[in-house]
Write a structure and sequence with these properties.
8 helices, single chain, alpha/beta, Rossmann fold, elongated, Methionyl-tRNA Fmet Formyltransferase, Chain A, domain 2, seven-stranded mixed β-sheet, about 325 residues
């Protein structure tokens, strides 16, 4: 079976590796062009490109599929299936029609919930108890195609977008291997999505990470988890950005004003020591932080060098 693979972020690496380990022929891997990254803004390859080169696979990095020579180049690989995992481009009908068994997409949500660009973070932000992976037959819409298979997992109170994405990547790789053989043999029937249950999520921007202390402690806690590792949740202290890396809601001592820092309190599932910050509802126990230009550290260690923080008023947003 000839499978052209399309993907870009870390989420897509394991599905690609599992295809190779299980003997699938991958004539080409399509991924996003190298992008500026880091302080020097040098061009950086996507995680999928790095993986493909390590596996000695042919890599193609089109800006888009609007040029006929790009579409013709893809068709020349004669794929039976195109497998897509967070590629980052909408595929036009000219591409969808190339493989004899269509294009299938690995989407990290339980479709039709959380269609779009940020499904993992959006599930955490919404306080969902479960999420999962859906494999669908692609059409020209945004994650609207009929579903071939789903797999569900629970979301724990310690899951961040980074941790949950890694779990979903492993599940995606296993689900893809279970779907491909029966799909190509005509043994699977795609099931249309229920449009009445559809929801969409927008891309996340760096500005989303700025904390509004007038929100509830639960809302901010979800944001801390949803925006880790990027863009991070942050406030400001002494004119510098202070990232909140780990936190938990505290339901006692909720009389603190929004943004007001209170002394060390137990927080989290294990009762770890944290400093608290008043919110619009209850107190957020801050367990781990990182000052701009410094290493990450526990709340206890941070307070040793920042004793004036207790009692201070942080900017509300």
């Amino acid at each position: 079976m000839r499978v052209v693979f399309m993907g870009s972020p870390e989420f897509a690496v394991l599905p690609l590796e599992h295809l190779i380990l299980n003997g699938y022929h991958i004539p080409a891997v399509y991924t996003q062009p190298d992008r500026p990254a880091g302080r020097g803004r040098g061009l950086s390859p996507s995680p999928v490109k790095r993986a493909a080169e390590r596996l000695s696979l042919s890599v193609v990095q089109p800006d888009s599929f609007q040029k006929m020579e790009v579409v013709s180049g893809l068709a020349s690989f004669q794929p039976d299936v195109i497998a897509v995992a967070a590629f980052g481009q909408i595929l036009p009908r000219s591409v969808l029609d190339i493989p004899r068994c269509g294009c299938i997409n690995l989407h990290p949500s339980l479709l039709p919930r959380f269609r779009g660009a940020s499904p993992v973070a959006s599930a955490i932000l919404a306080g969902e108890e479960f999420t999962g992976v859906s494999i669908m037959l692609m059409d020209e819409g945004m994650d609207t195609g009929p579903v071939l298979a789903r797999a569900q997992i629970s979301i724990s109170g310690r899951d961040t977008t980074g941790l949950l994405t890694a779990k979903l990547s492993r599940i995606s790789a296993q689900l893809l291997l279970s779907v491909l053989p029966p799909w190509v043999r005509g043994k699977l029937s795609p099931q249309p999505q229920d449009e009445s249950g559809a929801s969409y999520c927008r891309p996340i921007s760096k500005k989303d990470g700025e904390i509004d202390w007038r929100l509830s402690a639960v809302d901010i806690w979800r944001r801390v988890r949803a925006f880790h590792p990027w863009p991070g949740c942050y406030t400001r202290w002494r004119g510098r950005q202070l990232r909140i890396i780990e936190a938990a809601p505290v339901y006692e001592g909720s009389g603190a004003a929004a943004g007001r820092v209170v002394a060390l309190i137990p927080a989290g599932e294990t009762g770890e020591p944290a400093f608290g910050v008043g919110t619009g509802e209850a107190v957020l126990g801050v367990l781990r932080v990182q000052m701009e230009g410094r290493r990450a550290m526990s709340a206890v260690d941070f307070l040793k060098g920042q004793r004036e923080l207790v009692g201070a008023q942080l900017p509300l947003s």
